[in-house]
């Protein structure tokens, strides 16, 4: 039984890593087509770094990810604190609203945001589809995830700690800043990390909310795949895989216990 | 110093904490959802704009065999992907949970998952193409090159590949909380392994099993990218239809109706899931 389980796990991990290994190997392959390995080369990496567009798309991706994560983490953390600590009318409704970005398929979310931006453009004259609308779209799904992650952390905390702070004379914001936030920190960090990852990886919402000139790396990869991939994309993918590994290891070391 | 908060102060605290995020959700989640609902009753104008007359005509159009077939295909991808993920993921979750290096194994499970989604899907294109690795391996067994791409099989395979970790993680969380004493008790009472598993272990993992199924089923049904890249026009799912209506065809009204239908289907499955799992069911999803 034990052995069967081990064999099964081994095969599943092989399944998980096979595609990634192939991409990495191909990024060093001299041949332009097919999977036959004809010789080692770094040409594709050289070509990648000499393409100014790729750098631009990379910076766009980072810009969107940075701003959206920042905003979503602040909004989501505050929202989680409010939802856990206070009673107010509409609380139940808001809690359900939070699950919509989590469960509704990306494509539906993408087109509904597109409709919103189209209507706003019609009525208010802005915003034009651009990196701004992409960022707004990313914040929208990120807020939901950050709130849910931070909320589950806050629910684990002992409310007596905050009561003690208040008994000792701390004001509302002092309690929040010196007691609630430090205690909630692992949740906030995990939420922010999740938000960042979701933004870096997002294709669908970006696809529907990006206008001309607002290309991100996932959009670039998609169009390359549609047009017939150049091995440059293998090199780019390999770099992304390496960065993700580094990133995950870092996040893992930071948050421990909470993967 | 310790003020008993007045109603005003309480209201202010709610406003400061819940206000910005709540407002965001109203403007960017609730409003767009209502807009889609509204658009689904409108008509495509001559320039692809939304206009009157209002009516149920977009929904009537959904009954056309072409669209029904796309729904059937989506449902099939969703159900099969969930089943295969369960077969692959359920035993894996047990293996990881009982392994001394479980943190490392979780890390290795998540690593491919954090690699860009498009790259992962594209990798299967590379593997399954005519002169790809899979065909090269099959060739050594003198199985002639098979047309593995584009195909329903390719779409299903990449879908499972993409969403498998969503299945393993909740099951893993269930297994980690498992009370193994129940298993021992079952053995003490003379149960055979299979029976002991079915009565003492399986029911304890239901929450993870259900959460995992929902987390695979919904995105698998709703994705358009996998079918777009690996089906290459031969496998058309609801997601592809929606994308087409908002892209090439520019019939936003009909696209909205398709979106409402998909959303309705998803929310209905979630409702059934919540009925099954009770209050905390939804919370298991994140």
Structure described in brief:
The complex is a heterodimer of chains A (259) and B (286). Chain A has eleven helices and no strands.
Question: Your description of this structure?
Answer:
- The complex is a heterodimer of chains A (259) and B (286).
- Chain A has 259 residues and is an all-alpha fold.
- The longest helix of chain A is centred in the N-terminal third of the chain and has 34 residues, at 52-85.
- Chain A contains eleven helices and no strands.
- Chain A is globular, with a radius of gyration of 22 Å.
- Chain B has 286 residues and is mainly alpha-helical.
- Chain B has 13 helices and two strands, in the order αββαααααααααααα.
- Chain B has helices spanning 7-39, 57-61, 65-97, 102-114, 117-128, 133-140, 152-176, 181-188, 193-201, 206-222, 225-231, 238-246, 252-277; strands spanning 43-44, 50-51.
- In chain B, helix 10 packs antiparallel against helix 13 (252-277) and helix 12 packs antiparallel against helix 13.
- The two termini of chain B are 40 Å apart.
- Classes of the chains: A mainly alpha (259), B mainly alpha (286).
């Amino acid at each position: 039984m034990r052995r069967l389980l081990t064999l099964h796990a081994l095969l599943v991990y092989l399944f998980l890593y096979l595609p990634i290994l192939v991409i990495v190997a191909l990024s060093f392959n001299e041949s332009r087509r097919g999977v036959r390995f004809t010789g080692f080369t770094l040409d594709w990496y050289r070509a990648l770094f000499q393409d100014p567009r790729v750098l631009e798309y990379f910076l766009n991706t980072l810009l969107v990810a940075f701003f959206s994560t920042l905003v979503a983490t602040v909004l989501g953390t505050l929202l989680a604190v409010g939802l856990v600590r206070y009673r107010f009318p509409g609380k139940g409704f808001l809690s359900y609203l939070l699950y919509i970005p989590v469960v509704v398929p990306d494509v539906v979310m993408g087109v509904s945001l597109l409709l919103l931006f189209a209507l706003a453009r019609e009525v208010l004259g802005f915003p034009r589809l651009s990196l701004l609308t992409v960022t707004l779209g990313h914040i929208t799904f990120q807020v939901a995830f950050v709130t849910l992650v931070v909320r589950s952390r806050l629910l684990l905390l002992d409310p007596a700690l905050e009561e003690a702070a208040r008994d000792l004379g701390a004001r509302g914001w002092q309690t929040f800043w010196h007691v609630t936030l430090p205690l909630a920190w692992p949740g906030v960090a995990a939420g922010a990390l999740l938000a960042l990852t979701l933004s870096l990886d997002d294709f669908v919402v970006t696809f529907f909310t990006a206008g001309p000139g607002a290309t991100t790396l996932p959009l670039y990869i998609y169009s390359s795949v549609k047009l017939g991939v150049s091995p440059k994309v293998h090199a780019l993918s390999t770099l992304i895989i390496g960065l993700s590994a580094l990133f995950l290891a870092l996040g893992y070391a930071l948050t421990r216990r909470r993967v | 110093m310790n003020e008993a908060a007045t109603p005003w102060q309480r209201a202010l605290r709610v406003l400061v904490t819940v206000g910005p995020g709540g407002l965001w959700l109203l403007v960017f989640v609730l409003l767009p959802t209502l807009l889609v609902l509204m658009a689904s009753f409108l008509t495509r104008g001559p320039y692809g704009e939304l206009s009157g007359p209002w009516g149920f005509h977009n929904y009537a159009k959904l009954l056309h065999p072409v669209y029904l077939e796309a729904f059937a295909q989506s449902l099939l991808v969703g159900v099969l992907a969930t089943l295969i993920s369960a077969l692959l993921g359920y035993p894996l979750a047990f293996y990881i949970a009982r392994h001394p290096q479980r943190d490392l194994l979780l890390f290795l499970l998540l690593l491919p998952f954090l690699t860009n989604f498009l790259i992962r899907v594209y990798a299967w294109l590379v593997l399954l193409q005519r002169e790809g690795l899979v065909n090269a391996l099959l060739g050594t067994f003198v199985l002639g090159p098979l047309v593995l791409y584009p195909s329903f099989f390719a779409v299903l395979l990449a879908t499972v590949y993409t969403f498998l970790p969503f299945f393993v993680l909740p099951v893993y969380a269930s297994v980690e909380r498992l009370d193994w004493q129940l298993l021992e008790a079952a053995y003490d009472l003379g149960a055979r392994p299979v029976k002991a598993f079915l009565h003492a272990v399986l029911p304890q993992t239901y929450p993870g099993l259900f959460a995992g199924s929902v987390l695979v089923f919904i995105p698998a049904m709703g994705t358009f990218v996998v079918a777009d890249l690996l089906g290459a026009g031969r496998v058309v799912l609801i997601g592809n239809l929606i994308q087409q209506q908002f892209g090439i065809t520019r019939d936003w009204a009909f696209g909205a109706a398709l979106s409402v239908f998909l959303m309705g289907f998803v929310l209905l499955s979630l409702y059934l899931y919540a009925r099954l799992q009770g209050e905390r069911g939804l919370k298991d999803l994140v």
